[in-house]
Target: Transcriptional regulator
Amino acid sequence: MTGRSILVVDDEAPMRMLIRSFLEKEGYRVSEAPNGIDALNLVSAKSFDLILLDVMMPFMDGYAFTKELKQKDDIPIIFLSAKGEEWDKIKGLKMGADDYIVKPFHSGELLARIETVLRRAFPLNHKKNIIKAGPIRLDLNAHRTFLDQEEISLTLKELNILSLLIQCENTVLSRNRLMESVWGAEYSGTERTVDTHIKTLRIKLKKHGELIKTVWGIGYKFEV
Model:
């Protein structure tokens, strides 16, 4: 399950840092938010596979966040809370959470619960079909691309390039890797083919084309 993206929402910075530290050692990509409002903003801009959510937070608590999120997204949620009464757990699960862990907890227990929820949410051979990054949303099943909520037309190759760049956000991908991933290892064209498609892709993304960064002498990366 490593490589999955997890959002940690907790108003206590030391707790966020602790969770982030051991999850990153396990290979997960981790983002943080100190409250529900900031978390909603992150969810609208990026794609997450799981949310670890505190209950008692300022501005917007975990319950209010869950209610708001479930109206538009179905990202798995694990509550992490000091509220350990039975009715607290029942309330969280009834609101749509996938699990409820009482603080303090052992890192091994949290990791096991995370793996269980992710296995349930993403069975083997299941591909996540909606990818979001900043103003861009890709529907891989329908081969549709939305920019600032308006649909734009991309060729299948352009869609595959953009999808790969977004899923490897902040990672430099060489022209050769892009070519092998999108065109296949047996493709006999030159790496300039990648440059041509990137140029067209940037034009179609308008002002957001700058999210695709050129790394001179190597290739490209996507950076929000």
Q: What stands out?
A: The radius of gyration is 19 Å. The mean pLDDT is 88. The chain has two domains: 5-121, 130-222. Residues 107-121 form the longest helix (15 residues).
